[in-house]
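User: Earlier you gave me the apo prediction for this protein. Now I'd like the version with zinc ion bound, so I can compare the two side by side. Same sequence as before, with the ligand SMILES added.
Assistant: Got it. Here's the input I'm using:
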Amino acid sequence: MVDRIKLGDIAVEVVRKEIKNVHLSVYPPTGRVRISAPLRMDLDTIRVFAISKLGWIKKQQARQQSQERETPREFLEKESHYFKGRRYLLKIREHNAPPRVELKHSHIALYVRRGTDREKMPAILDEWYRHQLKAELPAMIDRWEKIMNVRVKDFGIKKMRTRWGTCNREAARIWLNLELAKKPTECLEYIVVHEMAHLVEKTHNARFVALMDRFMPMWPVYKEALSRLPVKHENWRY
Ligand SMILES: [Zn+2]
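And here is the structure of the complex with zinc ion:
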């Protein structure tokens, strides 16, 4: 069973287990906080424990969040690029074939034809990100359709300046921001669930929040993570 407690704006996931002692973890890259607690320990006791560790939690989160803010990429060797929340260092390689992207350990290799302009490289990488999302989303949407009992007729991926996702209720189509390919999978999944919840409820009212709480109790953590992770724009809506 998973519970959630709130310490100010920090949401803590509480998992009961067959263990003797309470255990607290803060996970990168989102700074997600989880407490494993003995089966019979009540939530108030766990809350008191969590409050006593608040300073430590914030310190861990700050450390994990001191990642660079995203500035425009220049496509230079060893520049940081993100995929699924992980940081990769760029390697640019020339070859005599169509462009290709490859992940190897901590590197992302961009294979381009000899003499390719740097200005053309972002589009090559974006195409790869789009391809990755297109491959991953059908199964994810399928799984949530069953859980939420809604039907998504179509989905699309596009670059959006101020939104993580949108939902066209009439067409039962959801749109997702290409940038989500760079974020941890749980953040992508949160936006998918959020947009799918709009198929049930149009606005962000109490009913909408109740749906999110029911289907994805940890949603505030992912929302918070999306706003903290390296982003190009400051004010996102969805
Ligand atoms: Zn929304």
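For your comparison, keep in mind: The helical segments are 43-52, 54-65, 121-148, 185-197, 206-215, 219-228.
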